[in-house]
Amino acid sequence: MATWLLLTLAAAAADFQDQDKQGHPTRAVLLGGSGEAHWNAGASVGSPWTTVTVQRGLRGGWTPLAEVQAASFARWQPAVGVGKRWIDRRWRLTGEGTVGWTLQGDPIPFRGPAAELRVKGGRAVGRFAPYLHLGMRSSRTEDRVETVSGDILREEARWETTLTGALGTGFLLTDRVGIDIGLDLPWVHMPNPSIPGMHIGVQTGWGRNQ
Fold it and tell me: pTM of whole model > 0.85?
């Protein structure tokens, strides 16, 4: 019984190392880059970040994507962008760029355009997909000083730069579904680090699995 179990696990691990499995949703979302003609979606919940992502693979390793991030459901960051797989072997390295908007209400309102550049990397290890994300996000808003009657006394632009990061591992449950758990490591108003967060996520996909 034990021998059969070990052989089954070894076969499953080898199967998920095959090049045909490199487009698995968990690897596509966590390591970046969907297989050609393959749709992927991922959602994660945690403290403070909650994220929903949808992406589709094109030829040449290009991956258009759309996402919404929320910090404690008080700060919303919708965005669209594109990713490009640079390395796609046992190790995968992907670059992504997004443009979007930052929406935050009182008591510290922040509304304005934003852009982010990030790198996703990791390695397929059997059914596991350890990953590391590093990025930089810049947002712009307008600070206003108003009178009681609503007249604007002063208005000036303010920029916010945030380093972003995540470290964790995914686990492939089936050919189309996986989960992950990880730490979120943002730096708000760098170089001052904020309190690390944690999340758990699920990934799925449809279309050609390649």
Answer: no
